[in-house]
What does this fold into?
Amino acid sequence: MPAFNQVNVIVKDMKATVDFYRRLGLEIGSDGTEVHVEVKFPNGMTVEFDTVGSVHVWDSGWNGAMGSGVVIGLAFESRDAIDAVYRDVTAAGGKGRQPPFDAFWGGRYAVVEDPDGNGVGLMSPIDAERKYWPPKPPPKA
It folds into this structure.
């Protein structure tokens, strides 16, 4: 069974988002000017906020809908597992939104949609030797 480890929230206004979540008690090391902000919790969970303009760097199939801008992140034990799970889900009729690719942060990554259209990110462990910058948008889904 995969481990639930992260939620991505797509936001229109990062400063307003950072201010709001700080007000709720989250410790955020950002002034709200970045396109990507991560909040790590003591239990290992992470919430990541990404601006509308930066989403296509890691999810080429994002359709621009707001209000459903949450991507549930599932961590898998290997890079090969990402390809296998993506193949299995799409072969069974599920919608693939971002085919597996070697992401700039060093993980193998893909996005599928649940039956309600919510994104579910599938991510391998991060391999520091596979990181690269600047990111290039992955192939269109």
Notes: The chain has two helices and seven strands.
